[in-house]
Amino acid sequence: SIYVGTMGRSSPGGTAQLHLYERDSTEPRVILSGLPSVNDMAIDAQDSLYLAGSGPEESEKVAVIYVEKEARRSAPISLGHHAWCVAIGSTGNVYYSTARSHDSIRVLRRKPMR
What's the whole-model pTM score? Predict the structure, then answer.
């Protein structure tokens, strides 16, 4: 399967979509709508997605959105600024850049297992 995130009608914005091209298909299926402009995405070891986004200026800016495997659930996990790229570290931490300065790499730490 191939995931494609769109920019929507404007960037920053809240009209982007996440498309899924399933195996042997030439037509995408829209699996999420109303997203911030998708600038980058990463996939973790559980096949969940992390989208780096540019949310609407008039509302709270969305930086990173978590999308559960097969898009059953999604939720913003970092707010207050835009994100331009995202990566998953070997320990499961999520790293993203806000492109605000040369020191713009931020980290969302994975919660320890109990």
Answer: 0.83
